[in-house]
Structure formats: C-alpha cells, structure tokens
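Archive entry. Fields below.
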Amino acid sequence: MSYIILAYGITALTFLVYFSLQLFTWQQLTDAERVLQESLDAAEKLKSSSHTSLN
Amino acid sequence: VWCVISKLILIVVLNCLLLTFGWTLGLLAAPTDALQGEVYRIIYVHVPIALATFFVTILLFFASIRNLLFSKIGSAQDNWMVACAEVALIFGVLLLATGSIWGKPTWNVWWTWDARLTTSLLLVLMLAGFLILHGSLQDLNTRVRSCSVLGILITLNLPIIYQSVNWWRTLHQPQTLLREGGSTMDPVMLKVLVANLVVVILVSTSMVVLRSMVLQKKTIVHALQMKGMHR
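PREDICTED_STRUCTURE:
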C-alpha cells in the first residue's frame, strides 16, 4: 500500500507544483508587462510634451 | 488580463478533476490483480506517464521539424519546442520514479540496468541535455537550429525504447496493450487504463500549452525591457 501512496503522491505533487508555478509565473509576468508598458507610455508622453514645449 | 488568468485557472482545475477521476477509477473501480495484488494499481500512473512521455517527445519532434524547415532567420521562435522538452523531461523523470517504486515490490530492486529502463534513462538525459544546450546558447538562430537538430535526434530513441522489451531479454514485462493477439488484460482493468491514458494525454497537452504561453509572455516582457533600455 505504501508503494501505491508513494507513486500516486509523487505524481500528484509534481502536477500540483508544476501548475501552481506556471500560474504564479504567468501572474508575475503579466504584472511586469503592465508596469513596463505603462512606464514606456509615460516616457513617450514626456518626450512628446517636451518637444511641444520646445517648439 | 483577469479573463485570461481565470481561463488558465479553469484549465488547471479541469486537469485536477480529470486526474482525480482517472485515479479514483484506478484505485477503487479496478479489480485487484491475482498475481501482484494491490500494488499493480501503480500501472494507472506508470503506463499513462510513459505514454505522455512519448506523446510530448513526438510533439518536440514536430516542433523541431517546423523550426528547422519553416522558421525565418531573425524571427525564429523556440517557445513551443522548449515547452515540449521541459514537459517531456518532467514526465520522463516521473516515469523513472514510478517505475522504480513499482520495481521494488515486484522485482525487489529499485533499479536495474534493464534495456527498457536504461533507454528510458537515456531519453531523460538527452532531454536534460537539450535544455542545457538551449540555456547555454545566446544567439537565437544558432540556438533554434542546434536545438531543433537535437530535438529530432532525441526522438530517434523512442522506437528503441518501445522495442527494447522485444529486442533484448529483459526483466521488464513486454507490451501490455499492443501485443500480438490483443491485450490479455481483464476488460475492466483495460477500460480503466484506457481512461487514464486519455486523461494524461489531455493533462500533458495542457501542460505544454500553459508552459508555452508562459514562455511567450516571458519573451514579450524581455522585448519590453530591451525597448526601455535602448531609449
């Protein structure tokens, strides 16, 4: 019985860890993408407004 | 964004439910084996994992072929190929682990240099080598070309693993399902095994898709970082 628990347990744990890690990484990368996009947009806006004021 | 996340969570929950369904059948619905007793129930994780290892490695083969023949220089993408290699490696390690756990009560050894076990170990080492090579090459085009060639070479090991129990005198049992004269398994055991095979194919496909989506997102974030740095 202990061998069955070991085999099923290791497999279940692997799937659980794998899916949790992928979801966590996806969330982190989505946040990073949003922050980077916002800062790039802000930099672009700043650049265009400084050009306008110089003109 | 939340829509995508909730869809991903839904996929993960569905996979967990599918696995629970398959394993419940394996642990409770399938009858006890006359020779091995209860321990034979490891078949419902071990054999499906073996099939998933083969299946995802074949996906790696097609991804490698596609990259080698159809990807344009400068716009090559290796996310799908890497996702396949990573998932195949996970299944390969699980295959060795569950096989070893089953081997102890039935053969009285955790490991033996049997043809099937050795060729399976070789597959795992080759997949690990693929990921090491991928991580060590900086230039995208060189990386995609080299890894595609290795991806194709890795797949050549699959027929050797499959035929190993026929080609060499071996401790590992011959094929359970695809054998001459049809399977000798009990019909209920066979149905439960087929159900678990279907479940694990769906789960492994989800794992590859999920991983390739994460790698794609990583590429986008990296491109945004580069764009910010060059301003």
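CURATOR_NOTE: The longest helix of chain A spans residues 2-54.
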